[in-house]
């Protein structure tokens, strides 16, 4: 039984299709993150789930019951908003208990729920303050408190951390994660930040142009992205893409990229194609920067290759350094240990681990 | 806030002497202060002079002896035509007219503004546009049918009729103020309230109304001053004892019988002006802030 | 059933006001336009006779004077109020000490009734004991300032009083506009070495376009409706030299018993306002929808 399910969901604003045939389902205790660039439809999907917007077609089901016509207050959900949406004229206490008051929960139960949540979020000392007297992080906690008191079936988060500064964002991120682990609640969480998605989710749905490009566990999306879009969106720095063709498909398959007379051949015989390519098919080879290193001796297996490449740009992060090379008429980035000395314009042996590559069709940009 | 533009002027002072430039600035500003305050000053001093002293001239001079007769006269004795009861009864007419008209039109505007911002539906913008247009029409275009309609309902010539008129033609502005204010309230607030289980009235009452103080101030001041100061509706739709103060003031000032008592005229004008001046001095700051914000945004 | 009411509640609640507006604004406008095409005199008649009231109106010298007056008044009133308002706003924006006090004195006239303003200025401008006498007493015995009683000049006294009442408000609008100009643009211009005069004429004032439009709309609207001020200051005189469409309409409606003429003149006033307001409202509402 799935807690939440979307079936063939469509949403149009006039002639603009914001959501196209969305299908997804999550189970008890799942932490689903909807991630994608702005305008991909992720917030609309969340609002439809909450009942704040109507769908054009399709169904939303909670505990296998269609809730399309059920108003938000009766869906057994709670929501945390990007701007926190705290009631500005009410104290923190009233903000948290307002919903219970509207639903005519007895005073004693309200107090009990308030105390529980305030303790959980460490906001006991703020209960008499107005939202304007709180810091961003405190407002965030109050907004979560307002959601938590409901003990809902599903929590909905709409970019809850994007108004916080970088440090606080990481802190609140881990608190949300801890809350989820502790309470085992079911969460749907919208963000445009892939790092947030990767670190929080048990399941990620990468959205683009109103469709779900890929739905899966974070590691799955990272290792075997379904499309160039997902590969590019997940992971930082982004995956390197090299255009070329597949040859010798019958024998020991090879990826060939030619640029200004120079030909680069990469053996890909070990690659498990899901869609067998034809001879000479245009493809895109994707290699994550993490697998482009300086360490030539670090063989993960046979599937690796060494190149002599010229560094043209270098950014250090402290722990490692991102180095940019010219390669086959394009650029590829690698992640080198910061202990390695990289000199701009001085050729360098670069080791590419081929065991983790992705290959996409050149036209459809889907994984093959 | 104005720091940078202030620096602009300072930067320009390099060629001139900055002190000279500042001096010139204050001189000009000061002259305009005189221009704007002079009429009020003249009104006050004239109202405190005796008629013989006024006839000697010295428009701008302070009264040699402060005489309050003109004020007393204006309040309870001044004649408009043949009735000599001063402004007092008309002042109360205006109070009795303004209070319900302001309250009713503000309340209606608040609810309309709430609906037209938070509960938009197909056609709600057209409704808003049609209401807004109503603020801008010259009221001459509705004067005659209104007079006939008030007669038909049987409230022609009395205060109830004027309350109706001011409420009806105030709806446009009050709705505009509240709508523009509520449009700037984050939509997420309403979404959160819906999820909390709040309905149409619960969102309006406990959540939006307590945060509406600024717009209520703007609307109440606007309605108060425009209804108190109204002349056209008053002179068209009220008769005799039921006239508002502006009409009575005009009658007193333009009364051609007897000697022209300038001091009484000025005292009468002051009496008619004091309520709105007081409101302006007490709360005008908020009014300008709110109004200016609205019109700058467009 | 409950759900149905909940769904339509906003529409149900807004409906009475909307109905009132439809009836009292649009219905009444329709009535006025209709009656302007009848032979109505003291009592309204409803048989349409075409545009004879308009032909008559445009053949009436008093109406032609009123229209000409309105044209002159709108132009001078709007132009002077804008110039004075903008000028004062720029001066006040120079980080002036006592700004609050100065602003208050510039602004308070807008709290007054036009009747009060008219009464005050009528006293100040009266030739017998007003400014003319003050200047003569100062040692200029030949000084003449009798605009109020001069049919050629009386209109300009209305301009003086009107500007006095409204320019402070225009100043407040411009001041708010000046303060909402993006300060980074000004900083960038200063870094580029652009002088203060050019910053105002080239960057700040052009960015005040929406304020200009708002101010012009408010002022034109005030000018066309101007009735109280004329009544209080000149009563349309001397003769009918300061008559305006608003006073003409009132005279026809309530003292002459010429409902047809009154309606026709009201209709023309309405059309004049529409020329300014409709494009404004249209663009405003479009913008907000986008």
Which features would summarize this protein structure in a list?
heterotrimer, A: 368 residues, alpha+beta, 23% helix, elongated, C: 290 residues, MetI-like fold, flat
Describe the fold and architecture:
The complex is a heterotrimer of chains A (368), B (298) and C (290). By secondary structure, chain A is an alpha+beta fold. Chain A has 8 helices and 21 strands. In chain A, the strands form 5 sheets. Chain A has a 6-stranded mixed beta sheet with strand order 6-7-8-3-9-10, with helices on both faces. Chain A has a 5-stranded antiparallel beta sheet with strand order 13-12-11-14-21. In chain A, strands 2-1-4-5 form a 4-stranded antiparallel beta sheet, with helices on one face. In chain A, β12 (254-259) and β13 (262-267) form a beta hairpin. Chain B has helices at 3-12, 18-47, 51-55, 69-76, 88-118, 124-136, 140-153, 159-183, 187-195, 200-208, 213-229, 232-237, 245-253, 262-297, and strands at residues 79-80, 83-84. Chain B folds into 2 domains: 15-67, no CATH class; 88-293, MetI-like (MetI-like fold). Helices cover 74% and strands 1% of the residues of chain B. Chain B is mainly alpha-helical. With 290 residues, chain C is mostly helical. Chain C has one domain (52-289): Orthogonal Bundle (MetI-like fold), CATH 1.10.3720.10. In chain C, 73% of the residues lie in helices and 0% in strands. Chains B and C meet through α1, α2, α5, α6 and α7 of B and α1, α3, α4, α5 and α6 of C.
Beta-strand portion of chain A reads 25-35%
**Strand fraction band of chain C?**
under 5%
Q: What's the end-to-end separation of chain A, in Å? A: 32 Å
Total helical segments of chain C:
13
| Shape verdict of chain C | flat
CATH topology of chain C: MetI-like fold
Which structural category do the helix and sheet elements of chain C fall into?
mainly alpha
| Largest sheet: spatial strand order of chain A | 6-7-8-3-9-10
Structural class of chain A: alpha+beta
CATH architecture of chain C: Orthogonal Bundle
User: Got a strand count of chain C?
Assistant: 0
Low-confidence stretches of chain C: none
Order of helices and strands of chain C: HHHHHHHHHHHHH
**Average pLDDT rating of chain C:** 88
Rg over CA atoms of chain A: 25 Å
């Amino acid at each position: 039984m799935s807690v939440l399910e979307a079936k063939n969901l469509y949403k149009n604003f006039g002639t603009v299709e914001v959501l196209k045939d969305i299908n997804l389902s999550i189970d008890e205790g799942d932490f689903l993150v909807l991630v994608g660039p702005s305008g991909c439809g992720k917030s609309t999907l969340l609002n439809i789930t909450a009942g704040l917007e109507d769908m054009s077609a399709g169904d939303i089901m909670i505990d296998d019951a269609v809730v399309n016509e059920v108003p938000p207050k009766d869906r057994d959900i709670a929501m945390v908003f990007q701007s926190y949406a705290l009631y500005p004229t009410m104290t923190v206490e009233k903000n948290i208990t307002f919903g219970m008051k509207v639903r005519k929960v007895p005073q004693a139960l309200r107090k009990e729920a308030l105390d529980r949540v305030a303790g959980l979020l460490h906001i006991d000392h703020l209960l008499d303050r107005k939202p304007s007297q709180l810091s961003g992080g405190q407002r965030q906690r109050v907004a979560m408190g307002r959601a938590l008191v409901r003990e809902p079936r599903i929590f909905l988060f709409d970019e809850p951390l994007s108004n916080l500064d970088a440090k606080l964002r990481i802190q609140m991120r881990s608190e949300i994660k801890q809350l989820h682990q502790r309470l085992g609640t079911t969460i749907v969480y919208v963000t445009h930040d892939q790092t947030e998605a990767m670190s929080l989710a048990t399941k990620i749905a990468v959205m683009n142009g109103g469709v779900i490009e890929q739905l899966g566990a974070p590691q799955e999306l990272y290792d075997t992205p379904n499309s160039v879009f997902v590969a590019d969106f997940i992971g930082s720095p982004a995956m390197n893409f090299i255009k070329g063709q597949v040859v010798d498909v019958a024998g020991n398959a090879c990826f060939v990229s030619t640029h200004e007379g120079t030909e680069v051949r990469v053996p890909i015989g070990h690659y498990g194609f899901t869609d067998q390519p034809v001879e000479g098919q245009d493809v895109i080879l994707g290699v994550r920067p993490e697998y482009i290193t300086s360490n030539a001796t670090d063989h993960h297996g046979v599937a690796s290759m060494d190149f002599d490449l010229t560094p043209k740009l270098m950014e250090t992060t402290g722990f490692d350094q991102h180095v940019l090379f010219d390669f086959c008429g394009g650029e590829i980035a690698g992640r080198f240990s910061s202990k390695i000395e990289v000199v701009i314009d001085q050729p360098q042996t670069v080791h590419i681990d081929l065991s983790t590559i992705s290959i996409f069709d050149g036209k459809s940009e889907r994984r093959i | 806030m104005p720091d940078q533009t202030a620096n602009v002027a300072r930067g320009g002072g390099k060629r001139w002497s900055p002190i000279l430039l500042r001096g010139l600035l204050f001189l000009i500003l000061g002259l305009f202060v005189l221009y704007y305050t002079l009429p009020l000053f003249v009104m006050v001093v004239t109202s405190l002079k005796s008629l013989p002293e006024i006839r000697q001239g010295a428009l701008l001079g302070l009264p040699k002896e402060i005489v309050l007769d003109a004020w007393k006269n204006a309040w309870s004795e001044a004649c408009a035509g043949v009735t000599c009861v001063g402004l007092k009864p008309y002042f109360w007419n205006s109070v009795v007219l303004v209070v319900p008209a302001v309250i009713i039109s503000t309340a209606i505007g608040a609810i309309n503004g709430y609906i037209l911002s938070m509960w938009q539906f197909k056609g709600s913008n057209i409704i808003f546009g049609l209401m807004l247009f109503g603020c801008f029409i010259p009221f001459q275009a509705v004067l005659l049918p209104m007079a006939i309609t008030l007669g038909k309902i049987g409230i022609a010539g009395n205060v109830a009729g004027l309350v109706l008129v001011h409420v009806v033609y105030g709806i446009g502005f009050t709705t505009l103020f509240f709508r523009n204010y509520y449009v700037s309230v984050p939509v997420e607030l309403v979404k959160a309230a819906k999820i909390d289980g709040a309905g149409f009235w619960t969102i309006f009452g406990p959540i939006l109304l307590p945060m509406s103080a600024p717009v209520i101030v703007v609307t109440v001041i606007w309605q108060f001053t425009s209804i108190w100061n109204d002349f056209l509706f008053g002179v068209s739709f009220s008769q005799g004892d039921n006239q508002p103060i502006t009409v009575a003031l005009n009658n007193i000032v333009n009364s051609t019988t007897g000697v022209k008592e300038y001091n009484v005229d000025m005292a009468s004008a002051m009496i008619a002006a004091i309520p709105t001046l007081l409101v302006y001095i007490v709360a005008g700051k908020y009014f300008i802030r709110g109004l200016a914000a609205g019109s700058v945004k467009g | 059933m409950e759900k149905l009411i909940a769904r339509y509640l906003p529409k149900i609640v807004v409906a009475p006001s909307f109905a009132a507006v439809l009836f009292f604004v649009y219905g009444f406008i329709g009535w006025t336009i209709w009656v302007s095409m009848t032979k109505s005199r003291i009592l309204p008649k409803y048989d349409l006779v075409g545009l004879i009231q308009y032909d008559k109106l445009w053949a009436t010298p008093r109406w032609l004077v009123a229209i000409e007056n309105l044209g002159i008044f709108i132009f001078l009133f709007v132009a002077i109020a804008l110039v004075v308002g903008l000028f004062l706003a720029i001066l006040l924006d120079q980080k002036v000490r006592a700004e609050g006090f100065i602003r208050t004195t510039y602004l308070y006239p807008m709290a007054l009734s036009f009747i009060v303003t008219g009464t005050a200025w009528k006293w100040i401008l009266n030739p017998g004991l007003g400014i003319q006498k003050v200047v003569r007493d100062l040692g200029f015995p030949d000084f003449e300032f009798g605009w109020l009683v001069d049919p050629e000049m009386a209109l300009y006294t209305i301009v003086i009083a009107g500007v006095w009442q409204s320019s402070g408000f225009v100043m407040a609008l411009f001041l708010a506009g000046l303060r909402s100009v993006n300060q980074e643009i000004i900083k960038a211009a200063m870094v580029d070495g652009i002088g203060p005069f050019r910053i105002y004429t080239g960057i700040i004032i052009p960015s005040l376009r929406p304020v200009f439009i708002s101010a012009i709309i408010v002022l034109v609207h005030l000018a066309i409706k101007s009735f109280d001020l004329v009544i209080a200051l000149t009563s349309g005189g001397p003769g009918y030299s300061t008559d305006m469409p608003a006073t003409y309409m009132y005279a026809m409606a309530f003292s002459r018993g010429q409902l047809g003429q009154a309606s026709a003149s009201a209709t023309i006033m309405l059309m004049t306002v529409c020329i300014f307001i409709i494009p404004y409202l249209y663009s405003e509402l479009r913008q907000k929808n986008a």
